[in-house]
Amino acid sequence: MKNAALKSDEQWRQELTPEEYQVLRQAGTERPYTGEFWDTHTAGVYTCRACGAELFTSKEKFDSHCGWPSFWAPLAEGTVKYLHDRTLGMERIEVRCASCDSHLGHVFEGEGYDTPTDQRYCINSISLRLRPVEG
């Protein structure tokens, strides 16, 4: 969906539920341990709930016990983009969908997780859809 970023605010409001809109378009956050994917172990590809772009796979997903789905890397270079986030008095790196500019979550590093990148992409479940792979 190449023109997703060109949608008006009103178009996004019509296409998304109020909860999806609050997270995806207003950079909100769902409460920990409430989203549908924080403890999911289904093999598949995680796509952007707003535009369908492929973002992460279950191969990079790991149990961080933080209450949100965690990945140690995106599916490929360029699928997400990064913004400095200084809200709430913190210095963080916001993760957005590169295709439609929707808020996904934040990425943290140096937390000591035993992953190949030592990064934790802390992503809101409501920002994602899971497309299971058969096999």
Question: What structural category do the secondary elements indicate?
Answer: mainly beta
For the largest beta sheet, what order do the strands appear in spatially? 3-4-8-7-6-5
Q: Which term fits the overall shape?
A: globular
* Measured distance between first and last alpha carbons: 28 Å
Total number of distinct structural domains = 1
The average pLDDT value, as a whole number, equals 93
> What is the CATH third-level topology name?
Metal Binding Protein, Guanine Nucleotide Exchange Factor, Chain A
CATH architecture: Beta Complex
The CATH superfamily name is: Peptide methionine sulfoxide reductase
| Strand percentage | 25-35%
Q: What is the number of helical segments per DSSP (H or I, 4+ residues)? A: 2
Secondary-structure element sequence? Answer: HHEEEEEEEEE
Radius of gyration, in Å, reads 14 Å
CATH class: Mainly Beta
Low-confidence sequence ranges: none
Task: Give the proportion of residues in helices.
Answer: 10-25%
* Strands, total number: 9
Largest sheet data? 6 strands, antiparallel
